[in-house]
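Interim report to the steering committee. The following record documents the input for RNase H type-1 domain-containing protein (151 residues).
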Amino acid sequence: MGHPSSWVIQLLSVSQNKGIICWFIWKTYSGLIWGSLTGIPTAENTIWQIKLYTQNWVLSMSNMKLRTIDKILYEERLIPEGYHLAQRILKPIRWIKPKNGLKLNIDAAFIPGRASGGAILRNERGKMLRAISFPVAADSSLEAEWKALIQ
């Protein structure tokens, strides 16, 4: 895989990735300034987060065939081994509309000392009908999920 700095240099050669890298650097800086990060993040950790985000972005390209010119995606193992870009389309797991009626999705987020829940109601066309977010008193992510569900 090489040194992290060489990976960033290669990644910068792909134009759309410049924005991702800048955004993560800004996000890390803001986290330090506003105290949402615990500890001092390392360059390696920030680069790892960029790689993970990029991998998720690649997997979200379900309707687009990725070209073999995106060699760095293979070299940095952002695409699983065995995938042949010219032959396969990567498909993410995504929200599916109900056949008839309504669908309610509920989720929660948790960080130590703070948790919140949310819900969204959609119809069979995928149109949002209602959405809500609310605080949840929880000591773990599992507890936050459970309390969001029953609330």
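The chain has two domains: 4-75, 102-150. The committee is asked to note this result when reviewing the revised timeline.
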